[in-house]
Design brief:
The structure is a single chain. The chain is 37% helix and 24% strand. The protein contains eight helices and 13 strands. A five-stranded antiparallel β-sheet has the order 11-10-9-12-13. A four-stranded parallel β-sheet has the order 2-1-3-4.
């Protein structure tokens, strides 16, 4: 059985044989950390230490952490991969001149988002100049998108390389947001295959292996709003066990691949040694 250390017990409740260490106690347990096969759900501030200083494997992947950290970096990366599946997005410094640009490029109503927010927080519907100016005064970066003509979106949950859940979230009356945390209604109507295929393709191309992806369907075309590295479990039946099982399957596959690569490298090294000896 692999040696597993978790820095977030809530996220690994459905897994077996996991040793929990508080993130702030990391330096007290370096020997254990160095001996572990996998480090699970470290805090963001730990990632560079664990991956780049200690050379350890982490789950979720570094890509999941770096791309999930803020919407600006995420959007810039996704533009290179799935630009046709992103809403029109403006990322501008919060200046008076750029307010004019937002009005001309996006117009009203527009949606302004804080670059580090989740669960529907830090998201505002802006319908006039005075509201735009008020929000701009509070933010250094303006991250803006048009309001799409929808009343629901999809939450697609990826763990490892599997989509373990996908469901609709319907906006509550009087609110443009569909997040379950702000009253969105979960529905298990059929999910378009195009949305699932988009998430699978993006995850494979970017190296994301854990996240909740928010996707809208616009005239049959999937539009990705964002992904969150950490996601709520509402809407996922049997969430704890299903997530734990999916993580264990994913780690096992990666351990098997690593073992085969190590064997191939040893065999190649032995062949090279034999050839040098015979020469």
């Amino acid at each position: 059985m692999p040696k597993l250390i978790s820095f977030d017990p809530y996220r690994t409740l459905g897994m077996h044989g996991v040793r929990y260490i508080k993130p702030e106690r990391m330096y007290d347990h370096l020997d254990e950390i160095l001996a572990a096969d996998w480090l699970l759900f470290p805090a963001y501030w730990q990632v560079n230490v664990l991956v780049h200083a200690l050379g350890k494997r982490i789950f979720p992947s570094p890509a999941s952490y770096y791309l999930g950290h803020d919407k600006v970096e995420q959007t810039r990366a996704f533009r290179a991969l799935i630009d046709a599946h992103l809403p029109a997005t403006e990322i501008l410094a919060s200046t008076q001149a750029n307010l004019e640009l937002l009005e001309s490029r996006i117009g009203y109503p527009m949606v302004l988002k804080e670059i580090r927010s989740a669960r529907g927080q830090g998201v505002a519907l802006v319908e006039e100049r005075s509201a735009l100016e008020a929000l701009a005064a509070e933010r250094e970066v303006l991250y803006a998108q048009p309001r799409l003509p929808i009343d629901r979106d999809l939450r697609i949950v990826l763990v490892g390389s599997e989509i373990i859940a996908a469901y609709w979230r319907v906006s509550p009356l009087g609110d443009f947001r569909s997040n379950v945390s702000v009253g969105g209604e979960v529905r298990y109507d059929p999910v378009p295959e195009a949305a699932l295929a988009l998430v699978k393709r993006l995850a494979r191309a970017s190296g994301i292996d854990h996240g909740g992806f928010d996707v809208a369907m616009l005239n049959g075309h999937p539009i990705l709003f964002e992904f969150n590295r950490l996601f709520g479990h509402q809407g996922i039946e049997g969430a704890i066990q299903r997530i734990g099982d999916a993580i264990e399957r994913y780690l096992a596959v990666h351990d098997d691949v690593r073992a085969r690569l190590d064997l191939a490298q040893r065999e190649a090294s032995n062949d090279a040694f034999d050839e040098s000896e015979s020469a």
